[in-house]
Structures are given as C-alpha cells and as structure tokens.
C-alpha cells in the first residue's frame, strides 16, 4: 500500500528582503537601470523602456557580432580587412576615430580594440564591411542578434551609433546586451577594461588613445563597458563593476555632462553594492537535498536543479527567506535520473518569489517482488516507508 501525501522540506535562511529601492534615492539622468548580474534582478530603474539613441553603446553589439563569428570559426582575430574610403572618411569627419587609412590591412583584433578602447567609428565601418560587405547589411545582422537575445525595443541602423533616426534602443535592452556580452564572451570582455590602445598607423607616428570610460580610472572594480554621446541624447554609459563575487551592470542615458555621467554612474553602482546582497540558493547540477522513495532499492534519492538560483536581497530589512521542497511522496520507484520529482518554492513573508523544478540526481531501481511485499507489510504495521 502506497499512501502518497504532499510533503515539504522547509529550509529557513536568515537573509535580507529584496524589496526594490527607496523612493528617496534618485539618479540624475533621463533613463537608468541597475541589475545584479547573478540573480538578474533589477535593483533600480527610471524610465527603463524609454526609446533613446544609444550612441556609441551601439558598438557593444558590433563587437558581439564579431565574437559570435569567431566562436563559430567563421572569423579569426588574425584575419585582415581592407579599409575602404568610406571607412576612412569617418576618421576625417571629427568623430571619435582609430585613424585608419585607405587600403590599410588591419587585423580583426586591432579593429576590435579600435572600436572598444578608442571608440573608433572608422574601425566600426571597416569591421562591418569586412564581415557583411556593407554597413547596411551588417546593421541587419545586428538587429537580428538583438531580437535573438531579447532586445525587443531595439533597431540598429549602423555599426557605430552616429546620428541616425532609426538607430534606437532602451537602457533595458542595452543592459540585456551587456549581460549577454559578459556571460558569453568573458575572454573577449577583457578588451573592455583596457585603459589605452596604441595604433601603429600608416604614414605617421603611432597614436595612443585612452579608454573613454571614466570609471576604469576610479579604482572601484569597474571593468567596462561603453560610453556614448550625441548632442540630442547628451551623455550615456553602460558600465559594470565586479567586487569579490558580485557583479552589477548599470546603464544610463541623458546625463547632462561628462562629470555627471561619471559621478552618477559611480553613485548608482556603489548604492547597489552597499544596500544589497546576492545569496546563492542552489548551484546548477549540484546535489541540493534528498527526498523519500517508496519501494526503491534506496530509501532516499538526491535531487538537484539544472540552473543556478540566486536572490538579491536588501540588507536594510533582516527577515526570513523560506525555501520549500514540495513533492508527492514518498516518490515511487523506479526513478530515472533527471526525472522531475519535486518543486523548489522560494517565498518571502508568505509571497512566492519563484518556483523551480527539482530533478532526480540518480537512478533508483524498484525492489524485487519479495522486498516489495515485505516493505508493504512493514508499512501496514509500522507506517514507515
């Protein structure tokens, strides 16, 4: 006889609640968002879905397209592209430039550094034309990638972010793009923290340019990402800071000056680090707990989650965060590895924050017929599985 009942294992963890920011805190920008990288939770937002001209933050996607192609083997860092007159003209037009020359043959790696560190618009066009033939075709690739990764309010019209009425995004989408970059290309993300790049140009002395990201020089743990400026949009910045095991991503646009961009972005990141903690609830593919088994060759089965689970919580309000393992049990054998046999429910003060499937970590075979009979008799007499 197998009387299955709804069982729950309750784990109490003394933590801080993850309530959203205080209304008294304000960042002086038109539109802003702050995300905890591990949990994905939004810690602060201000008009995050307002359409903006992303300016040079566009170049993050330009680099992602190249990184995707390198990863798939369709491109290499050592491959060289010719510089067209079209690309060269931008270096003469007063925009931020790498200062490349017509017919130069430049490696993909140098073009990427010229884009990421020097913010070279000319390097963007050279890379775009080398990959897609024209910048227009490259912009189509950029928008398709944006749609693929969940940037639902973005359209790219060029590779550099210079003035174009149809080059549009939001700080939320730029945050999604930044998160994708850091998660999928940690080895290439290293370019974003380089403070200078020297280009040994044709027909002149080498040019060394510093990274325009002001936070890299603040000794606060910043390691990216990209500044932007357009006369209409004013100053913008996608930034990231890593302190110990925590990483935050911030994106803001509509800062009134360079100084304000630096000051307010640093203020936002510091506020996120100071006021919140990120707690690991479960680690992907690691044993999380064990639950009862009925008529199995084992009385218990280990369970796990196939995703990392983190919660970002407010330090100022010490409360109890409760995790419950819910299952109809004991679970009857046979059990196959990766069977969904339980649920992890995370609650705070009675409110469900999230639910996650828990899977069997191992196979559990059914007992033979004699053992099953004895187990049933034992259960009838003692009520024990």
Description:
The protein is of the alpha+beta class and 385 residues long. The protein folds into two domains: 5-16 and 281-382, Peptidoglycan synthesis regulatory factor (PBP3), Domain 2 (Sandwich); 31-255, Beta-lactamase (3-Layer(aba) Sandwich). It contains nine helices and 18 strands. It has helices at 59-71, 85-91, 108-116, 121-132, 135-148, 171-184, 186-189, 258-275, 369-382, and strands at 5-16, 31-36, 42-46, 80-82, 105-107, 196-199, 207-210, 222-230, 234-243, 246-255, 276-282, 287-294, 300-304, 309-314, 318-329, 331-332, 340-348, 351-360. A seven-stranded mixed β-sheet has the order 1-15-17-18-13-12-16, with no helix packed on it. Helix 1 (59-71) runs antiparallel to helix 3 (108-116) and helix 4 (121-132) crosses helix 5 (135-148). The N and C termini lie close together (10 Å).
Distance between the termini: 10 Å
Instruction: Identify the CATH homologous superfamily of the largest domain.
Output: DD-peptidase/beta-lactamase superfamily
Unreliable runs, pLDDT <50, ≥5 residues?
12-21
Instruction: Return the average pLDDT rounded to an integer.
Output: 90
Could you say what the CATH architecture of the largest domain is? Answer: 3-Layer(aba) Sandwich
If strands are numbered along the chain, what order do they take across the biggest sheet? 1-15-17-18-13-12-16
CATH class of the largest domain: Alpha Beta
Strand content: 25-35%
Domain module count: 2
Number of distinct beta strands = 18
Count of helical segments?
A: 9
Q: Determine Rg (CA atoms, Å).
A: 27 Å
């Amino acid at each position: 006889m197998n009387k299955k009942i709804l069982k729950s294992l309750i784990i109490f963890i003394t933590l801080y609640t993850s309530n959203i920011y205080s209304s008294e805190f304000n960042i002086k920008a038109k539109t802003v968002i702050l995300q905890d990288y591990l949990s994905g939770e939004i810690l602060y937002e201000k008009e995050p879905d307002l359409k903006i001209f992303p300016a040079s933050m566009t170049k993050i996607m330009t680099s992602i397209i190249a990184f995707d192609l390198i990863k798939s083997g369709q491109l290499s860092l050592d491959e060289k592209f010719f510089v067209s007159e079209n690309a060269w003209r931008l270096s003469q037009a007063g925009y931020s430039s790498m200062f490349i020359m017509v017919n130069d043959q430049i490696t993909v790696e140098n073009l990427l550094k010229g884009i990421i560190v020097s913010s070279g618009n000319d390097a963007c066009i050279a890379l775009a034309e080398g990959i897609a033939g024209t910048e227009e075709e490259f912009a189509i690739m950029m928008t398709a990638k944006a749609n693929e990764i969940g940037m639902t309010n973005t359209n790219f019209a060029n590779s550099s972010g210079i003035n174009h009425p149809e080059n549009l995004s939001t700080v939320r989408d730029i945050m999604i793009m930044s998160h994708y970059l850091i998660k999928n290309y940690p080895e290439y993300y290293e370019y974003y923290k380089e403070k200078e790049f020297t280009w040994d140009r044709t027909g002149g002395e080498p040019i060394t340019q510093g990274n325009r990201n002001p936070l890299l020089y603040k000794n606060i743990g910043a390691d990216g990402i990209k500044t932007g400026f357009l006369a209409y949009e004013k100053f913008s910045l996608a930034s990231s800071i890593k302190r110990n095991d925590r990483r935050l991503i911030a994106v803001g646009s509509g800062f009134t000056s360079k100084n304000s961009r630096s000051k307010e972005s640093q203020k936002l990141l510091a506020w996120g680090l100071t006021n919140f903690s990120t707690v690991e609830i479960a680690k992907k593919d690691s044993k999380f707990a064990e639950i009862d088994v009925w008529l199995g060759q084992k009385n218990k089965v280990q369970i796990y989650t196939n995703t990392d689970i983190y919660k970002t919580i407010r330090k100022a309000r010490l409360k109890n965060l409760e995790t419950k393992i819910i299952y109809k049990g004991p679970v009857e054998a046979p059990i196959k590895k990766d069977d969904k046999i339980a649920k992890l429910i995370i609650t705070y003060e009675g409110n469900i924050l999230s639910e996650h499937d828990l899977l069997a970590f191992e196979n559990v075979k059914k007992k033979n017929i004699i053992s099953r009979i004895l187990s049933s008799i034992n259960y009838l007499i003692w009520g024990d599985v």
